[in-house]
Specification:
By secondary structure, the protein is α/β, with parallel strands linked by helices. The protein has 21 helices and 27 strands. The structure holds beta-D-glucopyranose (BGC). The site of beta-D-glucopyranose (BGC) has 6 residues, from loops.
């Protein structure tokens, strides 16, 4: 057997030459992905975790497999790669892929929280740090960013997205890809390849139930759901992951129109397409394949290169080729894409890439990275309500109560590489800043979903002894993420009872929320005097939140997903279409208008919303002209003044409405925003350009263009509160 020395696989041969020297079985093996449990000797029926014999997978195939899921740790990766290369006759290294979503050991806020920062630089930096820590620990590819547009907070995975707006999501998609990949993966060892997911429209799962059907018009898909994936690819994202759901009746993983036609042919994507976990075999359950062989056939034909976690490819592709049902060229193409990424990452020359057990100790969770996480956490929190109670004076006697007072469950889903023990709790953060640690009384009050009379009593006593009550409430992180849909999106009952009980004391209540979705805030919103939405802030949670509570920093986050008034409204989002009937009426009993009999139409808190410790006064906005042409954009100028007592940052938002499109248009669409930091009394004059290009959209024939006619531009502090001006587009 011609065993090439480790790491010298491609040698002077071109990749096509290398592929030509491989047997069909060896090529198919590149398309399989082994998972960490396989190396640990675990067995799970039907999945690629081993033992391989039960799946009919030979040792030879294992030796030529292409990639590994979920391995991180420099020494482990070096050991596995070394053993692999000794056994692989072509010297083709493994690609190490893992979910490094919002940090590696230094955990950043969850993506929905990062979304609320409206800060692309910090978002990029978070991905860059995640990449650096992951790379030194042996990871080559991260399954991120997740850019699914989300409108339904019942779906647990909204926590992984940056929100409900296609424009903002696209900016974040680019920022994350830049951060993970940098400019040149071949020379920059501190970066990892990114894999944008889940293609496509996973966020539109019916009724917010995970894995559920998605059925959208192609126009909806293109206008709202696709822009962020496209933006990631325009930024050079190396990989794409399929979604679990159907798209127009066909599961994404076997969808030729979506994958071959749109992704590969129309968008020209030539990187690796990987299935989501088990999604190839799921084509059988979905009902478009009779058996594993047909599932393999459909996924490969749709363009899926790597099958994650199931064994349809490895068991059936070779026989499908031999039977003439699959052209071997399709397999060669998939192998070429996989080998191309290995080559781009320099793995043939250096199969360990940045993996370095010594450097790993210095790099991961270093102070510099934690400071960046702290900064982003402070900018991700959103002040939802404040009746003059925040910031807290440091000398106030405070009872910190609730299941999140001393909890390390502040990292959120996808933090498997981080450690809750390393996370700063809110109690620790507040103790650092309180004028005297004795001024801070801490009690649990209840657990997240259950409690005892003793816990409640101890909390009541602590609250009685204090001037102000800070309640740390929320959802445990397993109530968010994959397979964590909730139909009732209020806080768990036991926490609402805690609020009710403490309310009896008539003392000011500040609530800090640790959760991963917009909640229905009944039982808390009216009862609390102030609410700070902290999301899952990450490793530095306690320090970041305490800085905001005590006014060392000023909250500046703005919601990127609407908070419903009631779960019965969802999906409720700002960029919806109008109806032919009025939206709501002064009297709920007025009939034949588009409203509920029992709740308002509007969400409790709209997209773009967030308070500050200061106030911002907007001047009258002015347009440079009332007519816009293709050649000549117009300018909108608006002055903004910090009219309060604290220095702070405002996010000035610009929305547009097209009044008479060829198809109906959203009542508002975010087109631009500006963040501006102002000292008390300071003013700034902001200028926005409005151009014809920003007014384009997908028409009924899917052409992308603008319509002449009447528009409104809105400028203000969120999607609800703003000034409005009219202009016309003349063509
Ligand atoms: C998730 C993906 C993830 C993959 C690998 C799947 O269950 O849907 O987002 O990347 O697992 O861990």
């Amino acid at each position: 057997m011609d065993r090439t020395a480790p790491g010298q696989g491609a040698g002077t041969r071109s990749l096509p030459e290398l592929i030509a020297s491989m047997t069909l079985e060896e090529k198919v093996a590149q398309l399989i992905q082994l998972a960490v449990p396989f190396y640990e000797g675990a067995a799970e029926a039907g999945q690629i975790t081993g033992p391989m014999e039960s799946l009919g997978i030979s040792q030879e195939t294992v030796h030529h497999s292409g990639s590994v899921l979920g391995m991180a740790g420099a020494q482990e990766v070096i050991n596995v790669q070394t053993a692999h290369l000794q056994a692989n006759r072509h010297g083709i290294p493994l690609l190490m892929m893992a979910d490094i979503v919002h940090g590696f050991k230094t955990i950043f806020p969850v993506p929905l929280a990062i979304g609320c920062s409206w800060d692309m630089e910090l978002a990029e930096r978070s991905a860059q740090i995640a990449a650096k820590e992951a790379a030194v620990s042996g990871v080559h590819v991260t399954y991120a960013p997740m850019v699914d547009l989300v409108r339904d907070p019942r779906w647990g995975r909204v926590v992984e997205s940056t929100g409900e707006d296609p424009y903002l999501n696209a900016l974040y998609a680019r920022a994350f890809v830049r951060g993970f990949q940098g400019d040149d993966l071949a020379s920059d060892m501190d970066r990892v390849a990114a894999c944008v997911k889940h293609f496509a429209a996973y966020g539109a799962a019916e009724a917010g139930r995970d894995y559920n059907t998605v059925d959208l018009s192609e126009r909806q898909l293109r206008e709202f759901y696709l822009p962020a994936y496209k933006a990631a690819l325009d930024e050079g994202c190396e990989m794409v992951m399929t979604a679990f759901n159907t798209v127009d009746g066909i599961p994404a993983t076997g969808n030729v129109a979506l994958m071959r036609k749109l992704l590969r042919e129309e968008w020209g994507f030539d990187g690796i397409l990987i299935s989501d976990w088990g999604a190839v075999k799921e084509l059988i359950n979905h009902g478009i394949a009779e058996d594993e062989s047909e599932a393999a056939l459909k996924a490969l034909k749709a363009g899926v290169d790597i099958e994650m976690m199931t064994a349809c490819y490895v068991k059936h592709l070779a026989e499908l080729v031999e039977r003439g049902e699959v052209e071997e060229e399709l397999i060669d193409e998939a192998v070429l894409r996989i080998l191309t990424l290995k080559q781009k990452l320099g793995l043939f020359e250096n199969p360990f890439r940045a993996a370095d057990p010594i450097k790993e100790q210095e790099v991961v969770f270093c102070e510099e990275h934690r400071a960046a996480s702290r900064e982003l956490a402070m900018r991700s929190c959103v002040l939802l309500k404040n009746e003059g109670i925040l910031p807290l004076p440091r000398e106030s006697k405070t009872a910190l109560i609730g299941p999140f007072a001393q909890s390390g469950d502040v990292l959120g889903p996808w933090s498997w590489t981080g450690s809750r023990d390393d996370a700063v709790t809110l109690a620790e953060g507040m103790q650092r800043l309180a004028g005297d640690p004795a001024l801070l009384l801490v009690a649990e009050g209840c657990g997240i979903e259950s409690g005892t009379a003793e816990q409640l009593q101890a909390a009541y006593e602590a609250a009685q002894a204090a001037d102000v009550i800070v309640l740390a409430l929320g959802e445990h992180s397993d109530m968010n993420g994959e397979a964590a849909s909730r139909a009732d999106i209020r806080l768990p009952q036991v926490q609402l009872e805690l609020v009710r009980k403490l309310k009896e004391l008539n003392k000011p209540i500040v609530a800090v929320l640790f959760n991963g979705r917009p909640l229905d805030l009944h039982g808390l919103f009216d009862e609390a005097d102030a609410i700070l939405e902290a999301w899952y802030p990450g490793s530095e949670a306690g320090h970041a939140v305490a800085s905001l509570l005590y006014g060392e920093a000023n909250p500046s986050g703005r919601l990127t997903m609407s908070f419903p008034y009631h779960v019965g409204q969802v999906p409720v989002y700002y960029n919806a279409f109008n109806t032919g009937r009025p939206q709501g009426a002064p009297d709920a009993q007025v009939r034949y208008v588009s409203q509920y009999l029992d709740i308002p139409n509007e969400p409790l808190l709209p997209f773009g919303y967030g308070l500050s410790y200061t106030t911002f006064a907007y001047g009258e906005p002015v347009l440079s002209a009332e007519v816009l042409t293709v050649e000549k954009p117009i300018l909108l100028k608006v002055a903004i003044t910090n009219s309060g007592a604290y220095a702070g940052e405002e996010t000035v938002q610009l929305y547009v409405r097209d009044h008479a499109g060829e198809v109906v248009r959203p009542v508002k669409e975010l087109k631009d925003f500006r963040k501006v930091w102002l000292a008390p009394g300071e003013s700034a004059e902001l200028e926005f350009t409005i151009s014809e290009e920003q007014l384009r959209y997908y028409h009924s024939d899917l052409s992308y263009s603008s319509d002449a006619g009447a528009f409104t531009v809105f400028v203000g502090c969120n999607s609800r509160d703003h000034a409005a001006l009219s202009f016309r587009l003349v063509k």
